[in-house]
Design a protein that fits this description.
Aminopeptidase; alpha+beta; 13 strands; 37% helix; 13-stranded mixed β-sheet
Length: 324
Amino acid sequence: MLDVQILKSDDYCRWDDFVKQHHPQNLFSLSAWVKTMAGLNDAMPVIIVCAIGEKMVAGLAGALSRRFGIRILEPPMFTPHNGIIADHDILERIGEIIIGESILKYLTKICDRLVIINWPGSISLERIGSMRPKIALRHTSIIDLQDGMASSRGYKPDVRNKINKANRANIKVIESYDPECLYTLMRKTFSRAEAKIKLTRGSFCAALSDINGNNWLRMFLAFKEKMPVAAMAILQYKGTAYSWLSATDPAYYKDGVGPKLTDWILVKLSSEGFQEFDFMGINIQGIGRYKESFGGRRAAYISQDYAFGIKGRSFRFIQKVLRG
């Protein structure tokens, strides 16, 4: 008989072993990641597991928070995926529908709204049960890295021109762990868009320190005349690098510092033997065009937004009102 419950923190190591065995590329479902990222906006890290006896067969990691009195389970902040992970041998015997319905039924008890952004290969619940989610198709761009300069072959002419412009402007790039510099540059980038970072400098730097302690994080800075003008934090895991957080001082857009920084990172990673570089989403139109100009291949995934009961549906209404 299937038993679904919230996993106790003392058993997180069992969950991590399960993730590494059944979805070994999935950094974003590991308990250390979920705990750190959920804490950024005071959410509670939650790992829901479906088990037969003591044996885990499936599970979902996320962040549980309250907004406007509504309980929301979703990917933690700065997290691109939180799909359901399953033991596929058991999945074939029991059936995806039975496991999916068991998890969904339990989730209706602990949250009013559920957001799942599927990792490729995770269970998709859109065909399961009577509760139909709001589904959105999303894409990312992935560059297949090869040795040395081979990664630059797919660049569009505009990217090459901007890199040449940055070289003429004597833009220099180094690898250096400096979260405060990244935070400062992110504030400048956000202010250009008339937005604000909803994090304090201290909480941001503390979270990056935790991630860095797991050897998942690397940071790169671009300088013009000793002034930091762009930064990118990438995640590294199992041969794949992820473009996680990046920012450019708007005063230096014209110097091509963003393309120069990205190119420098790609060349370095490819020379180190990394297999892929994932831009982690191309779903914002202007930013998406920029990321695709580096010549990667498109990869699709879906997000699923469930509204459970009156509270869940009312949150969608509140969102529409706030967006105007």
